């Protein structure tokens, strides 16, 4: 049964107002470190361990995060601009009231993470691992997501605006008020049966028809 005229609740976007920041004096990240009101500009954190660290009212601009260990980290009321890296470990991290702008990331680990009031705008993220993560009031805007993995995740009030999703995996995911209508490209390879709780456009429905038919075991053939 197709539900019509259902109101989709909009995501609440973060409203980050950074105070006057103090420049990071260089050095390495420390496990369980406490970083408050700092500006990290063009810092190279490749291979460093900041697991369990807390970033509050911070700006990270142009920082390298290759293989950086940030599992269980907390990023609060902060703006991350132009960050880049492969294999960044943010497993079970918490991001709240955060803006991520023009990121270039590959294989970033966010499984089991909690994202609340997060805006990801621009940039490209390859192989984003959000398995069993919880996303609430999250907006993906104008970005490219290549093979994002939402397996077992819960998405509530999540919007995809002018962004490209290639090879998305929704296996065992739970979707509540997820708005996909404004996605520039929507390609779901697994878990299309989990779209209950999402809203898509008529054009997207036609594009997804072959995947839906395969999921339901329906064979499509012309009459003899």
Automatic annotation (TrEMBL):
<dbReference type="InterPro" id="IPR001646">
    <property type="entry name" value="5peptide_repeat"/>
</dbReference>
<protein>
    <submittedName>
        <fullName>Pentapeptide repeat-containing protein</fullName>
    </submittedName>
</protein>
<dbReference type="Pfam" id="PF13599">
    <property type="entry name" value="Pentapeptide_4"/>
</dbReference>
<dbReference type="Pfam" id="PF00805">
    <property type="entry name" value="Pentapeptide"/>
</dbReference>
<keyword id="KW-0677">Repeat</keyword>
């Amino acid at each position: 049964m197709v539900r019509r005229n259902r109101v989709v609740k909009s995501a609440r976007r973060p409203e980050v107002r950074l105070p006057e920041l103090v420049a990071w004096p260089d050095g390495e990240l420390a496990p369980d470190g406490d970083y408050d009101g700092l500006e990290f500009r063009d810092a190279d954190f490749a291979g460093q361990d900041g697991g369990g660290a807390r970033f509050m009212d911070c700006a990270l601009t142009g920082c390298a995060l290759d293989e950086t260990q940030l599992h269980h980290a907390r990023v609060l009321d902060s703006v991350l601009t132009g960050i880049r890296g492969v294999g960044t470990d943010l497993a079970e991290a918490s991001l709240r009231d955060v803006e991520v702008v023009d990121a270039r990331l590959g294989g970033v680990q966010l499984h089991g993470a909690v994202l609340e009031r997060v805006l990801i705008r621009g940039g490209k993220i390859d192989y984003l691992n959000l398995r069993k993560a919880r996303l609430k009031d999250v907006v993906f805007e104008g970005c490219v997501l290549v093979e994002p993995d939402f397996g077992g995740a819960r998405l509530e009030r999540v919007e995809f605006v002018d962004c490209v999703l290639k090879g998305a995996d929704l296996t065992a995911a739970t979707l509540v008020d997820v708005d996909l209508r404004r996605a520039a490209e929507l390609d779901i390879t697994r878990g299309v049966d989990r779209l209950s709780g999402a809203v898509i456009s008529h054009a997207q429905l036609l594009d997804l028809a072959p995947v839906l038919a395969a999921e339901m075991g329906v064979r499509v053939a012309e009459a003899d």
